[in-house]
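Let's practice the habit of predicting before peeking. Look at the sequence and jot down your guess about where helices and strands might fall. Then scroll down.
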Amino acid sequence: MPFAMPKPTSGNRRWLPAVVFLTYCLTRWVAFPAGVTETDEVLFCQAVERYDLARHHPHPPGYPLYVALGKLAAHFVQPNFEALAWVGLLCSCSAIWPACRLVTGLTGCDRTTTWAAAAVFAHSPVVWLTSAQAFSDVPALAASMWTVWLLWKARVSPLRRPKRRYLAAATLLATAAIGLRPQVAVSLVPLIVLVVAERQIGWRRRLLVTALGILGCAAWFAPMVWISGGWRAYLDIIADQGRWYWQIDTVFGMVHTDWTRRFSFWLRPWGAAATAIPIVALAGMGFACLLRGRPTSGAFVATWFLPYFLFILCLHSPETPRYALPALPPIIACLAAALAVRPRLGRWVGVALAAGLAVQAAPVVWLLHRQQIPPLQAAAWLRVHADPGTDLIVVDERLETLMHDALRGMNWVAAKAVGDEEMRGGHAWLLTEFPKAGATPVFERSWKSRRLVLFTRHRFLSAHVYRLGGSTPQANRVPKKA
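Done guessing? Here is the structure:
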């Protein structure tokens, strides 16, 4: 029986969870970055300073609870970036325990196999890189893991009273996870509906769960709308953002959809093809095992994964691998189910896959830990060599946000806009690249003329030049585009 699931077992090697957990926490600390790496982090840092959705501090739909955690952490840690990074690191460390308990409950595999699968999850490049960054993804993932674990306990509990308690706690945690990152509602709400739809839960309990969900969301949604200037102002902000997303990210608004890129997006969190293809293939096999041996678990995992998969496939950008984070735990659960078919071999396969992922991710993680990305290196260079007349050419608007935040207090004077040909012609460039997938920031300095150029690997059509005047600490303004 190639797809037979093992019987539940208490497992062995009780020291293994402690070792894996300590290793997990240590590797999260190693991933603590030296500075921001994306402009969304800058926007979150600015939101901690002053929450303003109209100025995208942070960007819509708002992430109010994540910003609130950042404000709380900022009382103990400064600057704001480090406060948000510590929030992510602590939340990341708190997610591993419920994830492992959930995988054990779903698959019935032993403790060693569960933690071998957890090691694969922990060393995924996207999980490792984002675990201590100033993003809402990891805190929302941690809250989601606790929510899904409680929902599973509610689904399998034979007693009505514990079932109701688990369900109520899971509903409140789900509202908190949505307040941290609203996108996780796509995967959490269907799971709550699945559990509530059981016959053992009466209509009164269903009404109570609905009321808890509404009140929990209203607790953070109403203050966010009020701070944003009222209901009408908030709707205008969401409408503007929605129109932009519809044209840029969704398959319905785009003129041409690259379906190959949208499907291959699910391979990117698992590194190179040598590790990504086996992980995804084993996860597919594990899902077949669950459907045959544990139909309840199979339906639960499918309800957890498929809505978010369709959301990313049709309505979201496939550019950034961290957007896949909410769907990685169900993939790991299916992977553990596949490894449990042949436990002795499966454990070593899990360890080998985790080692392969770690080898791929470790150099970039270590680089992030030791030095800032080139745009911020450029900002540090400018602060030392800010001679009047130096030109800063900013090609990508996202890099402008990075530079503006890093160079507050310096006197910027807008010079002019330049095109592609003028940018490329007649200069000898010094290139320092940051090895990161996607649009890699590049810092170039011309030795023939005092110019700094910031752009991405994407071909550009126009840019804006800003001329640096003398250093004026009293000034704290952002340059206007020419």
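How did you do? The first helix runs from residue 15 to 30.
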